[in-house]
Amino acid sequence: MIYIFVLYGCVFMVLEDVVEKVLANDILFIDNVLKKKDEVREEAIRITRDILRYSTEAVRLIHLGKYEEAWRNISRAGELIVGLRELLADHPDLYYSGLIYNSLSEYAESYITYKLIVDKEMPSYKEIGVPYIPYLQGLGDVVGELRRHVLSLLGNGEIGEAMKYLEVMETIYLWLRKLNYPDPLAPGLRHKVDVARRLVDDTKVLLINTRNAYMVSKKIDEALKSKD
Residues 112-151, buried b or exposed e (16+ Cβ, 10 A)? Predict the structure, then answer.
């Protein structure tokens, strides 16, 4: 019900009715905006799941030596990211959020891992095409994937090649360590740097022990051959 008072020739509407009128316009407008954003968000979640699936599968295939199949998965994930950017062009608050970053960091991890192991090169941040936070998160996780590669190389007796990848692991760690920022600015980065440091240290010990064992074994073989 609307109450109107006349005072000194002026008409005044009761405050609650003014509030009702304004909110009827504003809340309905915001409701429509949020409905649209929620629809976009649901579609974005579906796409990120596919990006995540292709990226994690690519890493698995890399370690199995199935490089062509791995790259196909990386390419599919990359195409989905292009579509995701277009979908969220008017929703930067969604694109630059943890909702999206997890899948993008997995993509960055798979892309960098492939380039380092297969192409023997380091892709640039711009080449990968993701925001810098998921890029850094993915780069941190690459250290763990390179350790897996080092273990595989050691299993094949390729100690020299394993040493090269240990150096790459350490180089990544040392550069990431320079970014000493709090979590609100670089979410999860400090933790990934700490993990990378432990992985580098553990891999160094493993390689030293493996190399020493190899040298001892080699000397024993040489000694036995000299007796013959």
Answer: bbbbbbeeeeeeeeeebbbeebbbbbbbbbbbbbbbebbe
Contact of 60 with 24, CB cutoff 8 Å: no
CB of 80 closer than 8 Å to CB of 47: yes
pLDDT tier at 200, thresholds 50, 70, 90: very high
User: Whole-model pTM?
Assistant: 0.84
The distance in angstroms from the start CA to the end CA of the chain is 112
Domains of the chain: residue spans and CATH: 132-208 (1.20.58.2140)
Number of H helices, E strands in the chain: 8, 2
pLDDT digits over 141-181, tens only?
A: 999 999 999 999 998 989 999 999 999 999 999 999 999 99
39 in a labelled binding site: no
109 is in an annotated binding site: yes
- pLDDT score, position 227: 61
